[in-house]
């Protein structure tokens, strides 16, 4: 590990740290599942940048909400690069991953200076590279990629400068024309003059209820030449809520893409596509707008995934302290139920304020675990970090800093395994993206922290499995759904993988829980299984194709038109 | 699993009640840098009481309540714990302690609720809170029993019925859920949580249309759901902040205590003069007290601070009209109509001002617009009928029977629709003016 932070060759895992002695858990197959362990490798990564929040004595609200992140292959060299997004002017930084796994600052060379809140990443002009849409408190910006990781600001030409405070954004092809449209969640009509305080009169950040919510924006892609604002025609201007998180997917499997928006203190929206580009918010009747108690909560980030392995997409929304995070289990009635209690996901989050979250198979055992980035938005009733403590966050944030969470799926119930470093460290964490940065077959995590360095948590699952004497128990696949007609990944494709342990559902969806974007390739943990039987892909245009399976521990690219149509 | 939780929670109870008891002189003190002077002063005063009488459990409890009211949660927990030690027969201290602990760790709150309810088993809001804690920890059968017991103790406790409905919905018994939640909604029609959960229950029971109607209606309900829990409410009554002053002022208004309401509002404004809602409610209170100039000044301030504050522009329009400032009233009424083109009361005000100025064309035009809007609330509709009648009479007496008839017809149409007894009289007048107009 010393020197080389991230191993880059598939199958060539670096040895684990000497001080890591993970416990092991037996599997029914006789293999031994390595207990999930992460180690913070930020210090060795080459990234020592402190993301400026822009906070000051006026307690500007964007400072406590910001901290965005994109993890994507910007320069097309096969490894993942990082773009960290700060609410303070000039605070964004772009880091290119080098062959040795280190990151170097290439912000100016890439043309990615600026500030912002969050982002979406995808190939908007179908030229085979990944473009970047930057949300901001103010006009948004669009950067088109030249294929080599150099970006040009095309906000004006593309009509992409959405006004107001935008937060998260999601890519989706609403009209199935092959070009990715963009849904932009917007937050509140922020007034910097507004002064807010706690009940005792101590100055603090304002909450969303101090301001009017904003309607979201849907931008239709005009064949890779620009955007047209179709929000009103789509029906989404009917809601003016404080939007923070957004996920686009076909939640009811009717062949049309839907949109789920987490709103801060307002009911969440479940925009069900009625066809023809029209959406209707059915969140209340489908049980995804309010929690079990009929309360709207402080919706921040969203994790989407098939957490209960019943082949549909479940949702997990992060919330404020004294609220629990909420797990909405998809019942396909159509509709959801708040299954937070059944999944034992309430207790761990009650005393924390959650933002970024991700369903991901942390231990490659075949089911989805959860990571949650936390950090208060108001001075906590009890500060967890003593002020000015060595290693603690800056004193200003000492009353806001919280630990993050790792929750491991144990047959549908989630166990809190955050009792050890790096999960016990306190920070103000926001965006969180799982991605296999070192390409060793397990998912690492990148977390953005305002007034702190972005943290890279390396997953040691493969390392641990590799040194085990017994059968391998952390096999994996990375699955890409590629459409050669579009020259890009088929965002929105639904993939069912037949494994020896049963079918598993994957989506070609860039993870984008809160102010973030990640790679669209889907990761599948296989446990002890050394191969899969088949893949079935429902492409975004409705075509269904079957592909033969293959061996574990590789990247599989499913190319549209090369399977057996059904 | 639930047994284990109870044991863990029992340990926590012992910890909360005994292990770290503070000496009397160690009074938990929150960080007060930046706190309001009134809050600092109140806390200092209560601490002086404690120093004078450290064995007084109720004094510790009162101190805890003030701390909690100002979100000094850790210190409030310490104070309640001490209060319960010193006054072990008093229900409210373990109860308030349980409710605070509940916000951190639901499992830890269970034995505290039980300990409190052992002292007052018939306090239905406490039974409901215990039931909710049981529900949140997955002990659904026990929760069901507690909700049922609370409903027996207080059949009007909406939250008890809602809890039964929620559990039924989670158990996929949508019809039972509809039954229980309907009862909750009857008891608390302003509660949005009950409305949306009932809407969902309707949908799950197959009555999607009714669910949609209810979901749409719920949009107009506030996001804050109040519950009838006098002991918990008494904590918030101690808060010395602008919002609390506003809440207390509104409570006084409901009981017709306008002088007390005014006092609360002025105290709130002193703490935070930037809150437009305080000025607006003060305007309403002063208007009800007969202080029109004071009311107008307060409403103007609210409008300056937040021109889009709901209701402030129509209020100002009416207030200016009453003080004789017709230009100001007209400008405000026009402003009110811009975002809310269907506000018939503002149309009537414009009609009145136009009539006062002898602008017949404008008067008739705006009354026709009001008529097309077909107001449904009785006072506005009756006002429109009256104005249409007045205009019709004026036209009739000016020798314009045809124009008068058209106004009478509109008034009659509205009166008929509403079953208003004035319809018979209007019908007679319409017949009379038609005779005057032989065409």
How does the major sheet of chain B shape up? none
Biggest β-sheet: strands ordered side by side in the sheet of chain A:
7-6-5-4-37
The count of strands of chain B amounts to: 0
Largest interface: A-B, 39 and 51 residues
Proportion of beta-strand residues of chain B: under 5%
Distance from first to last alpha carbon of chain A: 48 Å
Give the proportion of residues in helices of chain A. Answer: under 10%
Q: Unreliable stretches of chain A, pLDDT < 50, 5 or more residues? A: 1-28
Features:
heterodimer; A: 566 residues; five-stranded mixed beta sheet; disordered N terminus; B: 439 residues; 24 helices
Overview of this structure, please?
The complex is a heterodimer of chains A (566) and B (439). With 566 residues, chain A is mostly beta strands. Chain A contains 5 helices and 42 strands. In chain A, the strands form 11 sheets. Chain A has a 5-stranded mixed β-sheet with strand order 7-6-5-4-37. In chain A, strands 36-35-39-40-42 form a 5-stranded antiparallel β-sheet, with no helix packed on it. In chain A, strands 3-32-31-30 form a 4-stranded antiparallel β-sheet. In chain A, strand 26 (354-360) and strand 27 form a beta hairpin. Chain A is globular and about 65 Å long. Chain B has 439 residues and is mainly α. In chain B, 75% of the residues lie in helices and 0% in strands. Chain B is built from 24 helices and no strands. Chain B has helices at 2-19, 37-52, 57-69, 73-86, 92-102, 106-119, 124-136, 140-153, 158-170, 174-187, 192-204, 208-218, 230-236, 242-254, 258-271, 276-289, 292-305, 312-322, 326-337, 344-356, 360-373, 378-397, 401-418, 422-436. In chain B, helix 20 packs antiparallel against helix 21. The chains are: A mainly beta (566), B mainly alpha (439).
């Amino acid at each position: 590990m010393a020197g080389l932070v991230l191993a880059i060759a598939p199958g060539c895992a670096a040895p684990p740290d000497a001080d890591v002695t993970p416990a092991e858990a037996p599997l029914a197959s006789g293999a031994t599942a390595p207990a999930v362990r992460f180690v913070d490798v930020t210090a060795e990564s080459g990234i020592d940048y402190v993301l400026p929040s822009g906070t000051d004595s006026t307690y500007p609200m964007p400072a406590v909400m910001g901290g965005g992140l994109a993890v994507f292959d910007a320069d097309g060299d096969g490894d993942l690069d990082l773009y960290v997004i700060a609410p303070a002017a000039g605070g964004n930084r772009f880091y290119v991953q080098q062959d040795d796994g280190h990151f170097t600052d290439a912000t100016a060379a890439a043309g990615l200076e600026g500030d912002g809140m969050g982002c979406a990443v995808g190939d908007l002009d179908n030229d085979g590279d990944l473009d970047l849409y930057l949300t901001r408190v103010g006009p948004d910006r669009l950067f088109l990629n030249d294929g080599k990781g150099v970006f040009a600001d095309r906000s004006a030409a593309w009509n992409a400068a959405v006004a107001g405070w935008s937060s998260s954004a999601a890519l989706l092809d609403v009209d199935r024309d092959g070009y990715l449209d963009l849904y932009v969640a917007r937050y509140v009509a922020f007034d910097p003059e507004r002064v807010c305080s706690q009940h005792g009169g101590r100055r603090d950040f304002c909450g969303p209820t101090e301001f009017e919510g904003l309607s979201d924006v849907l931008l239709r892609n005009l064949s890779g030449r620009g955007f047209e604002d179709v929000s009103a025609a789509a029906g989404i201007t009917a809601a003016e809520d404080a939007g923070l998180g957004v996920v686009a997917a076909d939640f009811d499997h009717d062949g049309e893409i839907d949109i789920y928006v987490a709103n801060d203190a307002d009911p969440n929206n479940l925009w069900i596509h009625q066809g023809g580009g029209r959406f209707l918010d059915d969140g209340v009747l489908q049980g995804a707008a309010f929690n079990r108690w009929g309360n709207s909560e402080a919706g921040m980030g969203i994790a989407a995934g098939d957490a209960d392995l019943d082949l549909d997409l479940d949702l997990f929304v992060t919330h404020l302290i004294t609220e629990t995070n909420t797990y909405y289990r998809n019942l396909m009635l159509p509709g959801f139920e708040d299954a937070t209690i059944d999944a034992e996901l309430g207790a761990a989050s009650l005393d924390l304020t959650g933002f970024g979250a991700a369903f991901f198979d942390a231990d490659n055992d075949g089911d989805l675990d959860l990571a949650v980035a936390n950090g208060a938005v108001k001075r906590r009733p009890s500060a967890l970090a003593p002020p000015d403590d060595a290693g603690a966050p800056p004193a200003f944030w000492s009353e806001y800093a919280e630990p993050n969470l790792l929750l491991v799926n144990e047959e549908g119930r989630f166990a809190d395994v955050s009792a050890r470093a790096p999960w016990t460290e306190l920070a103000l964490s926001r965006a969180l993206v799982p991605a296999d940065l070192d390409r060793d077959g397990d998912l690492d995590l990148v977390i953005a922290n305002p007034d702190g360095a972005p943290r890279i948590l390396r997953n040691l699952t493969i390392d641990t499995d590799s040194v085990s004497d017994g059968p391998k128990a952390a096999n994996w696949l990375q699955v890409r759904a590629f459409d050669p007609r579009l020259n890009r990944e088929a965002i929105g494709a639904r993939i069912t993988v037949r494994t020896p342990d049963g079918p598993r559902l994957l989506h070609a969806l860039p993870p984008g829980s809160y102010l973030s974007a990640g790679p669209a390739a889907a990761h599948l943990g296989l446990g002890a299984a050394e191969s899969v039987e088949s893949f079935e892909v429902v492409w975004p245009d409705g075509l269904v194709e079957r592909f033969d399976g293959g061996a574990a521990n590789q990247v599989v690219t499913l190319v549209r038109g090369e399977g057996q149509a059904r | 699993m639930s047994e284990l939780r109870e044991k863990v929670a029992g340990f926590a109870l012992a910890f909360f009640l005994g292990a770290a008891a503070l000496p009397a002189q160690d009074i938990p003190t929150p960080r007060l840098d930046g706190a309001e002077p009134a809050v600092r002063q109140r806390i200092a005063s209560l601490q002086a009481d404690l120093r004078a009488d450290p064995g007084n459990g109720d004094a510790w409890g009162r101190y805890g309540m003030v701390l909690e009211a100002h979100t000094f949660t850790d210190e409030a927990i310490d104070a309640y714990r001490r209060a319960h030690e010193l006054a072990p027969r008093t229900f409210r201290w373990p109860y308030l302690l349980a409710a605070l602990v509940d916000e951190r760790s639901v499992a830890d709150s269970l034995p505290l609720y039980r300990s409190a309810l052992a002292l007052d088993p018939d306090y239905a809001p406490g039974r409901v809170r215990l039931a909710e804690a049981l529900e949140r920890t997955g002990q659904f059968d026990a929760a069901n029993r507690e909700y049922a017991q609370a409903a027996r103790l207080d059949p009007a406790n909406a939250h008890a019925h809602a809890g039964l409905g929620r559990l039924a919905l989670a158990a996929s018994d949508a019809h039972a859920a509809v039954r229980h939640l309907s009862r909750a909604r009857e008891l608390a029609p302003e509660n949005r949580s009950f409305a949306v959960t009932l809407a969902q229950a309707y949908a799950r029971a197959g009555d999607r249309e009714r669910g949609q109607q209810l979901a749409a209606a719920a949009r107009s309900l506030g996001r804050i759901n109040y519950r009838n829990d006098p002991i918990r409410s008494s904590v918030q009554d101690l808060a010395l902040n602008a919002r609390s002053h506003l809440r207390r002022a509104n409570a006084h208004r409901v009981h017709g205590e306008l002088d007390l309401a005014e006092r609360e509002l002025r105290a709130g404004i002193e703490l935070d003069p930037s809150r437009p809602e305080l000025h607006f409610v003060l305007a309403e209170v002063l208007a009800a007290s007969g202080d029109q100039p004071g009311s107008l000044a307060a409403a103007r301030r609210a409008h300056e601070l937040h021109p889009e504050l709901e209701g402030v522009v129509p209020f100002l329009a009416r207030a200016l009209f009453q003080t004789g400032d017709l230009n100001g009233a007209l400008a405000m009424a026009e402003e009110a109509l811009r975002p809310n083109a269907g506000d018939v009361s503002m149309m009537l005000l414009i009609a009145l001002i136009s009539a006062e100025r002898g602008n017949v064309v404008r008067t008739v035009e705006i009354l026709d617009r009001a008529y097309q809007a077909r107001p449904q609330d009785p006072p506005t509709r009756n006002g429109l009928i009256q104005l249409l009648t007045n205009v019709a009479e004026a036209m009739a007496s000016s020798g314009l029977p045809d124009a008068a008839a058209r106004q009478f017809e509109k008034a009659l149409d509205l009166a008929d629709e509403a079953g208003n007894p004035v319809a018979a009289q209007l019908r007679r007048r319409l017949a009379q003016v038609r005779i005057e107009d032989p065409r």
